[in-house]
Amino acid sequence: MTKELKQEFTLRITQANKTQLITILYEMVLLYLEEAKAAIDADDKTECKAAIRKIRGCMDELIASLHLEYELAQNLLQLYLYINKELTQANLHFQRENLDHVEFIIEKLQKAYKQIEGQDVSGPVMGNTQTVYAGLTYGRNDLTENIAAPSGNRGFCV
């Protein structure tokens, strides 16, 4: 993942509600899956293992966010555990097919969450973050982002 993408995800995460956080995690998983597949194609086991480790980190966050008192969350847990199994197989056998299975599932889940994202009218999960306005000023080849009301306390409140 490039530095610019990391900055974009960081900005989106600070301003996201609960549903948007899930879709962002799905997007990150899909990006890391592409990195893992590219590493397999390039026969680079080290990069593949690193990408799979990052996917596992995202999956751990998704599992931790489940409210298991609901039946739907229990079903999602089973899917996430299956994904972890597929990631283990891909890591052990260096096979692209396992990553294709994971990608198929994540794409379906992301599509479903994108549809319900508009229905979630709750505010951002994080509080005390700075507001960033992009595009107010720009140069010939760049876009300037301005931070509104910078304060001395930049800690995040969750």
State the helical fraction: 55-70%
In the predicted model, the low-confidence regions spanning at least 5 consecutive residues are: none
Work out the strand percent.
5-15%
How far apart are the first and last residues' alpha carbons, in Å? 26 Å
The general outline is globular
Task: Write a brief caption for the model.
The chain is 64% helix and 9% strand. The protein is built from five helices and two strands.
Q: Can you characterise this structure?
A:
The chain has 158 residues and is mainly alpha-helical. It has five helices and two strands; from the N terminus they run αααααββ. It has helices at residues 3-14, 18-41, 45-64, 71-93, 96-117, and strands spanning 131-138, 143-148. A two-stranded antiparallel ribbon has the order 1-2. A hairpin with a 4-residue loop joins strand 1 and strand 2 (143-148). Helix 2 runs antiparallel to helix 5. It is globular and about 45 Å long. 15% of the residues are buried. The model has no long low-confidence stretch (mean pLDDT 82).
Features:
158 residues; 5 helices
Secondary structure blueprint with pairings:
Elements: H1 3-14, H2 18-41, H3 45-64, H4 71-93, H5 96-117, E1 131-138, E2 143-148
